[in-house]
Design goal:
There is one protein chain. The chain is of the alpha+beta class. It has five helices and five strands, in the order αββαβαββαα. The chain has a five-stranded mixed β-sheet with strand order 2-1-3-4-5. The chain is globular. The chain binds tetrahydrodeoxyuridine. Tetrahydrodeoxyuridine binds at residues 18, 21, 23, 25, 41, 43, 50, 52-54, 76, 89-90, 93.
């Protein structure tokens, strides 16, 4: 499951539209039913409309009726050359994960390659996060 998600994240990274930063990111998000939605970062000449790869994947999935997720793989780095560093999700993407995922069970896989990766629970990346339960309980 992990290697398949990383492979799809690396493939999605090929579609990265990042002419301004030259930093290419791909993501692959697995739903509870095993469906995989991919995403890439999509930049903009006005800069702020830029969307991260992770959020692209989430918004594709949610816009098709999915609301239950198991894991996401993320792979990012400069366009030229191999991925040398782990590209951890930005704060905004962590907050979007918090909206739809159980922080105690949702896995975030940060990958350099299919063989080199780290796995973190969302809770580790966003401790004491603010989420839907804060508004309902
Ligand atoms: N980026 C992502 O796609 N995901 C992250 O979690 C961090 C940053 C993108 C946004 C921008 O296109 C480029 O990486 C450089 O910040």
């Amino acid at each position: 499951m992990i290697e398949e998600l990383i492979e799809q994240a690396l493939r999605a990274r090929e579609f990265s539209y990042s002419p301004y930063s030259g930093y290419r990111v791909g993501a692959a998000l697995m739903t509870a039913d095993g469906t995989i939605y991919t995403g890439c970062n999509i930049e903009n000449a006005a800069y702020t409309p830029t969307n991260c790869a992770e959020r692209t994947a989430f918004f594709k999935a949610v816009s098709e009726g999915q609301k239950s997720f198991r894991a996401i793989a993320v792979a990012g780095g400069p366009a030229d050359g191999p991925i040398m560093q782990y590209a951890y999700p930005c704060g905004v993407c962590r907050q979007v994960m918090m909206e739809f995922c159980d922080p105690q069970t949702f896995d975030v896989i940060i990958a350099k390659s299919k063989k080199e990766y780290r796995v973190k629970k969302l809770q580790e990346l966003l401790p004491d996060g603010f989420g839907p339960s804060n508004l309902s309980d």
